[in-house]
Amino acid sequence: MKRTYAALALAGALTLALTGCVESNRTDSAGTGDTVACPVAVDESFTGTVRLGYQDIPNGDLIVKDTGLLQTCLPKATITWSKFASGATVIQAFGSNSIDLALLGSAAVARAVSAPLNLDVKTVWIHDVIGAAESLAVKDPAITTVAGLRGKKIAVPFASTSHYSLLAALTAAGIERDVTLVNLAPDAILGAWQGGGIDAAFVWDPTLSRLLENGHTVTTAADTAKAGKPTFDLAGARGEFVGANPKFLAVWTAAQNWAVQQIAKDPQGAATHIAAQLGISVDEVRKQLGGYVFLDAAAQAGQPYLGKQLGADLQGSAQFLLSQGEIQGLAAPEKYTAAVYADAAAGVSAK
Description:
By secondary structure, the chain is of the alpha/beta class. Helices cover 43% and strands 18% of the residues. The longest helix is centred in the last third of the chain and has 20 residues, at 246-265.
């Protein structure tokens, strides 16, 4: 498979500057202006500083951010939010100890845990199960299958769930060595698409919706999941942080669980908060939310997810990435199992 950029210089990535992330000392945005009550008892005993990372992906994390719910629940804490463009820069932040907890895809977690990075990262929450929200958009209306992209140039953010799904789709079509992959962040993908520099892109919303204004979909993450390659947007945290801050994680998880419940019970209100963060219409957010599956704490704590299966899924992702030359080696099987922390979700679901 040809590439116009190296597939992340993994060993050196940890020393790179955190390009692609924007620091914000705000605990929330102007948002809707709504005041939301803490779903659990307010904890004034936690006085630490927590550095959170988010991405512009429509899920409960943006609802928590927009409502300022963490500051409501932890009034004496110092909460900072940093925006990241993709999982690749989140991995860099974990490696340089400049972030405590952040959203990144399951492929990025698998990469972080594997060689040569071997990072101590724990998955503490599943923000969403990815479906059609991540798709392969193509410009040429004559191309209706993945195989039709032979010889074409395809953009994707490397080390992301879209990258993993794209590799799986290309391999299934037998053209993994016959395309050129371009490593671009989502906003840069839109510019390359409009400028004619790429033929296709595998990416998520809101960029995906912009591409589909004059393009079409040939496969989705839902399709690759059916073929045995599921992907997730996860919350990963440094292992040291998890061990030292169980009280914070309990409150953070309760806030995330509340947000998931809002998506189910009050989709209009949930979409309003997300729209305030993304700067798009509420109707567009409602449409985008349909491309994901959202799980509450009770579902997440069960065996199919944080209870057991996610560790196996992470190992499966790593095995596939190794077969594609995207990582240098696998970690021991137990390390992928240990990369899942289910205690906070189990604790919230038990209440």
